[in-house]
Amino acid sequence: MASWKHFKDFLKKNSMAKLKPAVNDGDHMQGNTAAPVQFVEYGDYQCPHCAAAFPMIKQICKKFKDELLFVFRHFPLTEIHPMAQPAAMAAEAAGLQGRFWEMHDLIFENQPALQPAFFLLLAEKLKLNLRNFQRDLQDSRLAEKVDAQFESGVISGVNGTPSFFINGNKYEGDYNIQSLSRAIKSAITQKA
Amino acid sequence: MLEINQPAPDFELNVTPSDKFSIKDLRGKKVILVFYPADWSPVCGDQLALYNETNRMFSRYNAELVGISVDGKWCHAAYRDARNLRFRLMADFEPKGAVARTYGVYNEKEGRSERALFIIDEEGIIRWNYLSPSNVNPGADGILEALQRLSEKK
Fold it and tell me: Which strands, in side-by-side order, build the sheet including A28-31?
């Protein structure tokens, strides 16, 4: 049944999983914009695997410092995670006040507590302008941005969360620090 | 696995405990027929959860997604409900896997269908197929690329 032709098709398909569009000005990024490695995560704020990956990514960013640019794109699975889209909106709304990453961190650190009223508490904690924050939570342009990031993930071959891309190529290895670090190191060597 | 450019065999199966459905009823639309091994198993869950969200992208191509596995109608009903699935799940239950066999994607050894995708066009002709290793979620990018290519051909 699993013929050679199908196996080849599978390899071809998987080797084609490329990040579309490439990292650009519309992305939320952390680290050195001129870094040899761009490390992109597609994540869902209510996904337990993403919350588990969160401290690991922090460690990786710390470890590779200036050699890494980290980018987060939204990939909310709204039907199984009803708080994923509102959380993405909260991060984007905080982003309009220059605090995307702070909100991103708080959301993952408090994942079990996520509910609509809780985002206001987080906004308060970050000393955001609450009126603007509440207005922006309803902003259809932010919702479109989240949708567009989701769709870019689908086109790029994201099949679940978290999914990672290293210099535009989909990472297919294990989700642990050792494997990810090895892949990042090899991408750095390729660039050197 | 049935090859492209041949008519998709029609079939009628339960989609809810009380209703049957035939893919012929979707003539005039493209059909994305998703064979998957089983309700509740982890990879299927991710794959179907993904398609639940990408449905809006498929609908831009006048395409409707239908899932099919050997699970029974009550199992499908509970699964759809638990995962908020917005598309039909067909029960290829009795005789077990008959439709999967017809489409050439039945796994005798495991007693379930393979993880396979077909796109059937508005006239009921198979235009694309894909067989995935059963432990790999094939994602939606291949489906969307195929839908895009088909829409450009017209």
Answer: A28-31, A68-74, A37-43, A163-166, A169-170
From CA B105, how far away is CA B116, in angstroms rounded? 7
Report chain A's mean pLDDT, rounded to a whole number. Answer: 93
Pick A159's closest partner by Cβ from B83, B104, B137.
Answer: B137
CATH superfamily of A19-191: Glutaredoxin (3.40.30.10)
What per-residue confidence (pLDDT) applies to A16? 57
Query: To the nearest whole percent, how much of chain B has pLDDT over 90?
Result: 92
Q: Which domain range does residue B117 map to? A: 30-153
Report how far residue B70's alpha carbon sits from residue B81's, in angstroms, rounded to the nearest whole number: 18
Using one digit for the tens of pLDDT, what is the confidence trace for A99-109?
A: 999 999 999 99
State whether ipTM is beyond 0.85.
yes
**CB-based contact (8 Å) between A175 and chain B?**
no
Give the list of residues 6+ apart from residue B103 with CB closer than 8 angstroms, or none. B1, B2, B9, B33, B35, B116, B118
Q: What is the CA radius of gyration of chain B?
A: 14
Query: Is residue B11 included in any domain, yes or no?
Result: no
Asked if A160's CB is within 8 angstroms of B137's CB, the reply is yes
CB atoms within 10 A of CB B114: 22
Strand boundaries in chain A, DSSP class E:
28-31, 37-43, 68-74, 163-166, 169-170
The confidence band for A167, taking pLDDT boundaries of 50, 70 and 90, is: very high
Tokens read off for A121:
């508490």
Answer yes or no: is B10 within a domain. Answer: no
Query: Is some CB atom of chain A closer than 8 A to the CB atom of B137?
Result: yes
Q: What is the pTM of this model?
A: 0.92
Q: How far is CA B63 from CA A66, A125, A164, B66, B102, in A?
A: 45, 45, 29, 10, 22
CA B11, chain centre distance (Å): 13
Contact (CB, 8 A) for B66 and B35: no
pLDDT band of A1, cuts 50, 70, 90: very low
* The pLDDT of residue A7 is above 90: no
